[in-house]
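Quick one, tokens below:
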């Protein structure tokens, strides 16, 4: 298999690339393992980025954003925990993208969605690693290159999901992503509310 050609096709014609990725017939357990491995590599890169740049929390940020910034900094110091969180979110995303796509009229099965999501994560990590290295060399262009790359990767994953679900255009894949993100946001908000209530109740019990 010419993986260089598959990479180029993924970036230029992702719907066609999706069928080739699925056609490879990679076993499900191999794909799950690869997905977790990519999560580990991303966590290591994330940790190194914070450690090498010696990032400090900007004092001018609002309290909520400072807390979020500090959370990410704490995760950079705990790559194993961050790997577990990232891997869990990726696994959940595969199930959600599969379910939402079928809800929107797609026909992709879980192994097919898993295959294209895993491939997209692999190429996303590879491109991100290149941009990370270039950031040390071409710092003024790093932000622009990152923005363009993220737009292109969004187009690629939209096409990959559209191909996996047999939609007629990448718009079907984009709709799947948008609705999945909405469901993620609702679920995260609900979880934070519950955790906040639990924390408040615990604090109240201590003061009594």
């Amino acid at each position: 298999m010419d993986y260089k050609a598959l990479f180029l096709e993924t970036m230029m014609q992702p719907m066609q690339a999706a069928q080739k990725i699925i056609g490879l017939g990679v076993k499900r357990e191999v794909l799950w393992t690869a997905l977790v491995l990519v999560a580990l590599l991303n966590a290591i890169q994330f940790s190194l980025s914070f450690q090498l740049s010696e990032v400090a929390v900007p004092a001018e940020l609002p309290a909520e954003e400072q807390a979020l910034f500090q959370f990410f900094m704490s995760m950079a110091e705990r790559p194993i925990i961050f790997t577990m969180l990232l891997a869990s979110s990726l696994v959940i995303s595969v199930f959600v993208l599969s379910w939402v796509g079928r809800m929107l009229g797609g026909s992709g099965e879980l192994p097919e969605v898993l295959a294209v999501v895993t491939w997209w994560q692999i190429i996303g990590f590879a491109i991100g690693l290149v941009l990370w290295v270039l950031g040390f060399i071409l710092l003024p262009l790093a932000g622009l290159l990152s923005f363009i790359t993220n737009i292109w990767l969004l187009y690629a994953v939209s096409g990959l999901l559209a191909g996996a679900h047999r939609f007629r255009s990448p718009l079907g894949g984009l709709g799947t992503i948008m609705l999945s993100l909405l469901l993620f946001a609702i679920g995260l908000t609900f979880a934070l509310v519950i955790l906040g209530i639990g924390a408040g109740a615990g604090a109240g019990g201590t003061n009594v």
